Amino acid sequence: MEQFVKEFISILRYEKNLSDNTAKSYQSDLKQLLEYCMENKISDWNQIKSRTLAEFFETLRKNDCSSATTARYMTSFKKFFQFLEENKFIEKNPTTTLGRVKLSRKLPSVLSVEEIEKILNAPSTEDKSGLRDKAILEMFYSSGLRVSELINLKINDLYFDEEVVRVFGKGSKERIVPMGGSAIKWIREYLLKARPLFEKKEKSQGYIFLNNRGTKISRTSIWKLVEHYGKEAGLQKEIHPHLFRHSFATHLLEGGADLRAVQEMLGHSDISTTQIYTHVDRQYIKQIHKDHHPRG
Fold it and tell me: Which residues are catalytic?
């Protein structure tokens, strides 16, 4: 059974051109199903019926699994069993009768402009690491990038004269995103004064943001430095990289930006994903009304 999963994941990566993170997500979900099958002495994908999957999802529900996670499992299973059916590895697809999960969309947390400013001002730019971290934080807020997009930026993706950066997002889709003046200033400073101190020519491969070994900075390091500067700024809340992306989108919409323009900048394939930020915007407006209206 496991071999079919390996083949499916391989096709996602090398034929469907899905990102490594997405492929790993499918792999993780199917691993859970494989474990469930082993526990229930199921040794062939043909043995899995709609009832089997319904029981699996009932187990998830009892374990207080969120609707978003349940929906992700369902998508993974449907894609996988479709692959098995198309290749005639199974006689009948058990996912055809699975219902859709109603998602309870959770509004993303956002930082105020003042909180963002405190974090951006937290790094000391007197040393190479502080200057690098300052450039990273400025880039996050200026362009609303995902962590994976930021760590994979290369020097030839920067177009300072045009004030834009070329980004490769999910599924290696390319998009052009504006960079603000402050981000440009600090990235230039970093490239001039700090990156040469990190760089090891045989290892750095043109990546913008490097670690002390001269290789591209890792996702884990980004999460740690963002959390660190949140504490340095004295903020009493959990700070993570996605907060910069959420705040980027929300602050643009609060300032009157067009929703489709924000969708393009964020790299969302579906505008409904971007529309969640209009709900955040409305929450902000309602709070302003409550705080300042005489009869709020």
Answer: 146, 170, 242, 245, 268, 277
